[in-house]
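Quick one: structure for this chain?
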Amino acid sequence: VNAERVFKLFDTQQAQQDEGTKTLDHAAGAITMQNVYFAYVEENYVLNNLNLQINPGEMVAFVGATGAGKSSIAALLNRSYDFQSGSIYIDGIDIQQYSLATLRQNIGLVLQDVFLFSDSIINNITLFDPNISREQVVAASKLIGTHDFIMKYPGNYDYNVGERGANLSVGQRQLISFVRTYVQNPKILVLDEATSSVDTESELLIQHATEKLTEGRTSLVIAHRLSTIRKANKIVVIEKGQIIEQGTHQQLLEAGGHYRNLFELQFQQ
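Got it. Here's what it folds into:
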């Protein structure tokens, strides 16, 4: 049965054609989306005429109801899916002109559901990349804020986290994924619901980790907890695949629109 599954995986056809020849070296991180339409199922568009400009080094947050299209934006950026029409540019070049490998090497992705292998903490961070030294991992862990709890485990960085990280808490697994992304040094960062399922103490640690991880990087942050995105350079409110508001936290509060309503619902307690 396992062999059949392996062969089925080998036979899977790649959805995206890797025809790009340009390499994304020393990326500045400017992102432009023009008239983007995207549907998982034909004609049932989850993104409708999306237009957005993100400057190098900016932190841009996306908020909206579940199914509004926030995660789809991240999926299009690294070409997990291709859009039906429109254009997406990184540093002024259409992303389809970049090779898939070089494009994805420059985009770090931190998801809500962190996958850890039944292996040591350090191997889960480096993913067996020989170019990442133990010293780099320790330095990154100290910066992100994971070093202290790692040192409490027997074997420290050689501690086996168990299947899917079962020996760690949800917050600890999330923080390990932050270090994993940090040591890869991506120029563009996507945080997708990274704090939605952790306790308050872990959320504070993750907020600190987010600040360190996003320094000097173009960052797209998808969040339900509005407390985590107040410092964003721009907040984009999406509803039914369209941008209905954008601005800073203070500007959107003063506008008294959809974001203001979301904010008051979360903090009226």
